[in-house]
Amino acid sequence: MTEQLPWWQREAFYEVYPRSFQDSDGDGVGDLPGLLRRLDYLADLGVGALWITPFFPSPQRDFGYDVADYCGVDPTMGSLADFDRLVQEAHRHGLRVVLDLVANHTSSDHPWFVDSRRSRASLRRDWYVWRDPAPDGGPPNNWLSFFGGPAWTLDAATGQYYLHQFLPEQPDLNYRNPAVLAAMEEVVRFWLDRGADGFRVDAAWLLVEDEKFRDEPPNPTWRPGMRERDRLVHLHTEDQPETHAVLRRLRAVVEEYRDRQPVLLGEVYLPFHRLVGYYGSSEEPECHFPFNFALVDLPPEEWTAQALGSLVASYEAALPPWAWPSWVLGNHDRPRVASRLGEERSRLAHLLLLTLRGTPTLYYGDELGLPDGVVSPDRVRDTAGFREWGGRWSRDAARTPMPWDPGPQAGFTTGEPWLPLNPDFPRRNVQLQQQDSRSFLQLVRRLLHLRRSLPALVSGSWRLREAPPGVLAYHREGEDETFLVALNFRAQPARLELAAEVLLSTFLDREGWERSLELRGHEGLLARLRA
Ligand code: NOJ
Predict the structure, then answer these.
(1) Residue 392 pLDDT
(2) Which of 92, 294, 379, 466 lies 20 to 30 Å from 528 when distance is taken between CA atoms?
(3) Could you tell me the distance, in angstroms and rounded to a whole number, from the CA of residue 65 to the centre of ligand 1?
(4) Which residue in 309, 366, 307, 355 sits closest to 332, CA to CA?
(5) Ligand 1 atom with minimal separation from the 53 CA
(6) pTM check: above 0.70
């Protein structure tokens, strides 16, 4: 049964932020040859696919999310030959390679934009979104950018504003021009021809904006401390019908390679009822799955059995019957799960991630229980961190180098790391956790291997079951076996009156048949139920 499922349903994904994973040449920045050296580790961990965030030539204003050439490799990351070797070796290790398709915008250094900005008569003028100033000379409307300030920047030489949902150095492409979509389709083919196994479409819910450029209304629920951009309700800059048409076309290109089952994933931050629109329909599919960030967005104080039970149930209920779920605990844009929840609850969160129905995506370092790094304002490199939070917080905290061993520079580089190492790296690193049978790493590894060996955890149904207060419990029911997952979100012990074979505790200190299941405070169990 499970063997019949496509690989992207069977396997867990692992997000690699390549700048911070493994450096190979001593410049303090991770690179593709470095990643290549760590494939043994990843294969042994038990993940089946790597999603690698952008490594294309880029001025690095947003660390690769500002692409200056879609069909190359940035020199700090290696070369195209390094990419080819990486794909070949990854495949040999049983690992698929998924790339980041930064489709919404390019770098302002991209030759397309350089040409577009040159003159109003440029061949590629219309590849980007240009508008005349408002009558007072200001921006054409009130739209705001993600990283602070208006979503428009004036190009003095040609007297028009261009649109950027992110930094001014990330001008938005104009998908109302068919040539733009055709160019992006070629990018997809370029990498699929080189052996890539699919794409995660960056900012997939933002690809097209309102044709009439209407102002967005004020957001009555905005409060200080929230993002500046969220002063507005994004009626006209998010989730436009035309965006779905673009995704359908990208999916059609991916389908040209269907014998290899490449995957199209989407970055979509929307509530469930709108998120599910990004699957498209069974006749006109879009993403194989849009990432589901509900567990990333759930505030730490709301990690209760009750809130989580209803969150999972409402997601399951929102999905069309043929749509495949996705679960995520963290990524390179958000505070790390270990910092949000603390170590014990973070162990529970990983049991949840790896036993819910759907494809789990892990974020590098989270398998060590790695907390956010300490990046003082003078070390902040994330432009968005400066623009939005004045350097007091930045995404760098979740992007610090992977701690491999207790040696110099944590084994990440022989040079000066581009971001500071986490201060606890001598105690929290891969090497030590590999030797400690109860470490966070061993928990994640055990779970990944159990997930592979127990088909019900992949293809079985999901159903909530009754449990004492504070305990989230559910069944995964396969053809021959049923498993129970019970997570105690309280510090007090709890008991489930049922006999089961414990396969794993989040404390990694018990296994075997038990007549009734006693859960210690903040303990989670995976157990096989008697047939
Ligand atoms: C989402 C990416 O995850 C983020 O890192 C980036 O800054 C924006 N999209 C813009 O590309």
Answers:
(1) 81
(2) 294
(3) 6
(4) 366
(5) 3
(6) yes
